[in-house]
Request: fold
Amino acid sequence: MGHIKPRAPVPPTGGPHGPRGKRNPDDTQEQLDEISNSISEFLELKIWPDYFDAVKDRRKNFVFREVRDRDFNVGDVLILREYDPRTLDYTGRVCRRPITYCLWLDEYGLRVSKYRATHVIMSI
Reply:
């Protein structure tokens, strides 16, 4: 079994973020700052323009990343910030997606436990 982090409380129905606390995946920076301040399980990642468009249009529903020092968990939310590798700068577009599944891999591509993994494929 994996480690389960406590969940943050969901705002009541009909609050400023709509029914059951759901937020628009294309929130403004101000809204994202408000969200980030209220819940600690948000992880910011760079994403290139072609991949950003595919995630935003829901054609791409996974992310493959090196684990490094990040603690990815089901239920966490990825804040995907579009980054243009040609200009070496962020474009300002942001997309938010929850992690629904994690597949942990080692350097050989073999499925392993979270604590021995070097890479992860996350369903979003």
